[in-house]
Amino acid sequence: MRRSKRIDPTHPDIRKLLVIDRQNTAWLMEIVEKHGWPGKTLVGEDGAHSAWVLVDSADHDVAFQKQCLDLMKEAVTDKEASPK
Predict the structure, then answer these.
(1) What is the pTM of this model?
(2) According to DSSP H, which parts of 10-56 are helical?
(3) Residues 27 and 41 sit within 8 Å (Cβ to Cβ)
(4) Residues 25, 26, 29, CA angle at the centre, nearest 5°?
């Protein structure tokens, strides 16, 4: 059986990715604060899916993830987000 490799958070490439991830999260927080969940009507189906991907990778901000989960539940009810 193969062992999974551990990611070294001090590696320069990983550090760059972490910085980009935090910048993307901050940008999405501004969108959510201004418009609520960016649903299909606001950003299209691909944009709504991309917003979910950004939230999914925002493990450094669990409170924001929980906030978005609540907003996404409403968006699914309103047909503005996919339940997938």
Answers:
(1) 0.81
(2) 12-35, 40-56
(3) no
(4) 85
Are 65 and 55 in contact by the 8 Å Cβ rule? The answer is: yes
How many structural domains compose the chain? 1
**Block mean pLDDT (10 aa), the chain, length 84:** 74 92 96 96 94 93 97 96 89
CA dist 51 and 4 (Å) reads 28
Domain with 65, as residue range(s), is: 13-77
9 CB neighbour count, 10 Å cutoff: 9
Q: Is there a contact between 72 and 37 (Cβ–Cβ < 8 Å)?
A: yes
13, two tokens: 């490439």
CA pair distance 27, 71, nearest whole angstrom: 17
